[in-house]
Amino acid sequence: xxxxxxxxxxxxxxxxxxxxxxxxxxxxxxxxxxxxxxxxxxxxxxxxxxxxxxxxxxxxxxxxxxxxxxxxxxxxxxxxxxxxxxxxxxxxxxxxxxxxxxxxxxxxxxxxxxxxxxxxxxxxxxxxxxxxxxxxxxxxxxxxxxxxxxxxxxxxxxxxxxxxxxxxxxxxxxxxxxxxxxxxxxxxxxxxxxxxxxxxxxxxxxxxxxxx
Length: 212
Known about the structure:
alpha+beta; two-stranded antiparallel ribbon; DSBA-like_thioredoxin_dom; 55% helix; Glutaredoxin; 212 residues; globular; DsbA family oxidoreductase; Thioredoxin-like_sf
């Protein structure tokens, strides 16, 4: 028997964070019942400069990629990867790219309630598959209720205390040079950057387990 703590530093508008968890989960499933995992989700903002009401996704990312043609090519490539891995990436020219700070405040509360993975997956699905604005308080509240968070827990997520906790966490990650998502910290010792393959995750976890 081996126990792992995995902190997943990610953003809910990052497709590679979504794919990365999907691949990590495959590795975890391969390991079987002799391994136990305590997974906590940690905040990272890909686009912290985005206003609280979000921006038009296509026009914003067109500037990031340099042209609409390059964005379209990247989008189609991502959608193909999604098809191969069982994730449906749907995009339209009306999509909003949200500010995810409120979502990160909600996930911090879900960590305490042991519902953070359920919430994270619901947020990814809501944004990437259903095209919902996960920067909107009402949308976030509805998603949180569906996964089982209680009213008082949801309210706690939107307090000043919660805001300060998330800001402190994100500042701490910058100080230790965690500057990209997804990043995985295993047992507070081992750091993995990027959405590796299931086989790669499996090898890392089994190598760590040998030394426990």
